[in-house]
Write a structure and sequence with these properties.
The protein is α+β, with helices and mostly antiparallel strands. 38% of the residues lie in helices and 21% in strands. Strand 2 and strand 3 form a beta hairpin. The chain starts with a helix and ends with a strand.
Length: 177
């Protein structure tokens, strides 16, 4: 009886711990501001106009040199979002600090450029955005997916992806390139 009680308590503890994982997984650490930018911000606090301008000139020149030497790079939110969209479907390490703080992309919509069926009865898709995806389940489509059809690919459970071609059932997919 005591052994059963311990198992129940252990199971309860594991389930409680698992319940908090999704909440903490969404918490993102704020990206660290590069030292060159922090040094530039210091110039704002200088009261004397001439000294402040001289500080800005010196720090901006140092920033330009760092950028030219590829020690630092800049991007805007639109470029970061475009980059994230282009990487949708790949399993990557946390890249938030590299391409800016943008929201996670949950799905993409694109157009089928071409589709071909392999010997295993599964499709290989090339899309208008240049990406290539493979069907990884055995679901049969009613019609062969032809070029020009729209497809929405969304994140699914456990890191998988579902592709929904217009007028068809959703199929599991994996991105190749």
């Amino acid at each position: 009886m005591q052994q059963l009680s311990q198992r129940i308590m252990l199971t309860f503890a594991v389930l409680c711990g698992a319940a908090f994982v999704p909440a903490t997984a969404k918490d993102k650490e704020k990206a660290v501001t590069p030292s060159q930018i922090r040094e530039l911000y210091v110039c704002r606090d200088i009261a004397d106009s001439a000294q402040r301008l001289e500080c800005f000139d010196r720090k901006v020149e140092a920033l330009a040199v760092a950028e030219a030497n590829r020690e630092i790079s800049f991007t805007d939110k639109a470029t970061a979002k475009k980059t994230r969209r282009g990487l949708f479907g790949f399993v990557l390490p946390n890249i938030d600090g590299l391409i800016g703080d943008t929201e996670d992309i949950e799905s993409i919509e694109t157009t089928i450029k071409s589709a071909s069926m392999g010997a295993n009865g599964r499709y290989r898709f090339s899309f208008a955005d240049g990406s290539v995806w493979y069907q990884i389940d055995d679901i049969q489509l009613f019609r062969d997916p032809s070029g020009g059809k729209k497809i929405v690919i969304r994140k699914a459970a456990l890191g998988s992806f579902l592709g929904k071609i217009e007028g068809e059932r959703a199929i599991r997919m994996r991105r190749e390139r």
